[in-house]
Structure prediction request, 734 residues.
Amino acid sequence: MVFRHKHILGIEQFTREEIHFILDTAESFKEINSRQIKKVPTLRGKTIINVFFEASTRTRTSFEVAAKRLSADTYNISASTSALVKGETLEDTAKNLEAMKPDIIVMRHNASGAPHYLADRCDFSVLNAGDGAHEHPSQALLDLMTMRQHKGRIEGLKVAIIGDITHSRVARSNLLALQKCGAEVRLCGPGTLLPTGVEQWGVPVFHRIEDAIDQADVVMMLRIQQERQGKTLLPSLREYAMYYGLNRSKLSLAREDAIVMHPGPMNRGVEISSEVADGPQNVILEQVENGVAVRMALLYLVSGGEQLEV
Amino acid sequence: MMKTLIKNGRVLDPAHQIDANLDVLAVDGKIAQIAAGIELPDAETIDAGGLLVVPGLIDIHVHLRDPGYEYKEDIVSGTRAAAAGGFAAVACMPNTNPINDNKAVTTYIRQKAAAEGQVRVYPVGSITKGLKGESLAEFGDLQAAGCVAVSDDGRPVTSGEIMRRALEYARSFQLPVISHAEDLSLVGDGVMNEGFVATQLGLRGIPWVAEDAAVARDVQLAEFTGARLHIAHVSTRGAVEIIRAAQRRGVPVTAETAPHYFTLTDEAVRGYDTHAKMNPPLRGAADVQAIRDGLADGTLSVIATDHAPHHVDEKNVEFNLALNGIVGLETALPLTLRLVEEGVLTLTEAIARLTIGPARALGLPGGTLEVGRAADITLVDPTCKWTLDPARLLSRSKNTPFGGWQLKGAAALTMVDGRVVYQR
Prediction:
């Protein structure tokens, strides 16, 4: 397969075949991560800048590790150190970066559509590491990779995504990727955290976690942001944990071999209890491990892929 | 004596139910005669063959940005754009800097418009001092200085009590109150219409009920006080239904919509196009249909542009940071004529929504062709086809979502007080 995407802005742009192709590519990179010397020369001479306008530890580190293992030169800019805090516009920031001739900009931004804005105006490849409440494609791909490893397939899997659907880019990207790959997605959350028009995605929507989890193959818990508590969306995290938190008894409604996922960072005791987070069905750290492989694959593919030596 | 004779045109004056091939004679800035076959060799003659001769168009909702934001627009550039769009008169909103909440600002606008403007400018004063929603502006003073209505446009009057008192006080001066109807607590930090498109794009939504709830409150207050209320930029189905029901039971309420609300849906936001960002936001298809129905049955008797010029730097940013609004003066006429083409409005109705409708809503002179009245006349070429190039707009700002659109119909000539202020 020829990978024709210059930018990776969202799962929206991919076909089912492309998603599996990316996962296959990631599988082939996974082995590098367990070698004694975890480095290949594939992207030697390539310049990758991680521009994070929003706090992130996991994703930024994952992208940086991925790039370094492929021998690319990487640089990090975060909001607190960037000129943005000095009032520079996103376009000016982008044009200044462009003048330094990077090959890839990996960007996280709190504004939905910010990576599209960059892609429209600049020469380099843009890799979306999360934009507002829109998409987080590398997260969805690493999630699918983890599901595929455990279940051997994506098609036909019953996947329950539970929590703050409205504000979650992880939920959107996973929903799109899973739908394209033929999984049966269920969404669940309290009415205040389900977005308007959610039913138009054509998936069942539940208000009771028990109904959503019933016979599920995969239970994906979303992070509840602490700042939602006590405002208009949630009365308290205590009540949220009671009705929407995943504990062992609720998990027992899922299939016996169900896996439990979480994109991190977790609020133990809120959306997920420690007994489940550390329990035998959790695959949370595998997700993190696969994240490096998926991001290696994405950096490799947007760099021209097949012509490069692995 | 200055005599101008407009010959061979199709005169269309909805207020008098005139639709006939007639000639119009203007003498010294006033309409002197409307009749068939006027011959007057010493008059300057304009051949209006193939053109519509209609009352000068009136736009009762524009932002001229003067004083204070002249980098976006000023009275000179704004009225030039108005003339090019066929408008002989505009009413300008008070959210300038300083705010038009006192007679000094009103007087400045009036004097600058008289000296340098191309078309009539009717200032709208603010309802509350500083648009703060706290205490009433001096309506009597504003009116004496030339304000034709009051509005806190750009912001709703959040307090029901203040809105009630504004209506009661305005009633003593027979001054219409224009409501920017939005419940801000429901708007929250929304940046586009709440619905599936917003959900897909991951953008915060503004629900239609934010507009409906505020329109309902203000309509009830108009009924309670008996004061003249005009609802600005109606964009939702619910608002149309509330206004229609109120009009049927005799509440003195009129309402306007803008061309973008009957032309575009929130689908236009896809791709994060900041030229599709406005307030109220572009709505869904059912709302667009309801707006069209409301125009057709007269619930919405006014098409106004909400002409909102913004500098390119204010739009060339992330979607959630972009300012709201688009320029509209130079596209309103062809977009309205599309409704005729699509069978939504008759030609007479379309012209009425741009002339007598707005004149009556604010109690303005004009909007009709009458002997003895000012010769404010627009010649419309209903068939010419053209492509909108934003760079060629006369407005100082170019923020339009209609760039590249193939449009049909344009103002061929605009006349104010018998003086030609624009000719295509």
Summary: Strands of chain A lie at 47-52, 73-78, 104-109, 125-131, 158-162, 184-188, 205-206, 218-221, 259-261. Residues 158 and 184 of chain A are 5 Å apart (CA to CA).
